[in-house]
Write a structure and sequence with these properties.
By secondary structure, the protein is α+β, with helices and mostly antiparallel strands. It has a single domain, classed as Arc Repressor Mutant, subunit A (Orthogonal Bundle). The chain is built from four helices and three strands. Strand 2 and strand 3 form a beta hairpin. It comes from Glycomyces harbinensis.
């Protein structure tokens, strides 16, 4: 979307975006960034994503474990916890609610425009 700064909108959605990516499979930082970018979230900054991972871990929504890597140092993997799954479901419900309300607003004709 050229000309639109989506950063503030995405900032508010970063928890649900990261949790959803980790619901499909555990991942380490760089790999999570790659999956987010493959999903179209190119504008998410590395620091924002790593900060979100740390915050979600501290909140108990993610756990971590270390795996050896053939290509350098060991990697810290993040995994969704049971509380993280519950939080993701709550966030998904909230997203659907807000999305439905926004769509209703967008579907409301503007005064003076044909329906």
């Amino acid at each position: 979307m050229e000309g639109v700064d989506r950063s503030q909108l995405l900032k508010g959605l970063l928890d649900i975006i990261v949790l959803r990516v980790l619901e499909t499979a555990d991942g380490y930082g760089y790999e999570i960034l790659h999956r987010l970018r493959a999903a179209g979230f190119d504008e998410l900054g590395d620091a924002s994503v790593y900060g979100t991972l740390r915050r979600l871990y501290r909140a108990g929504y993610l756990s971590t474990y270390v795996q050896p890597s053939d290509a350098g140092p060991h990697r810290k993997y993040y995994a969704l916890t049971e509380p993280g799954t519950k939080y993701l479901r709550q966030m998904q419900d909230a997203w659907v609610d807000v999305s439905d309300k926004m769509q209703a607003l967008f579907d409301t004709p503007r005064p003076g425009t044909p329906e």
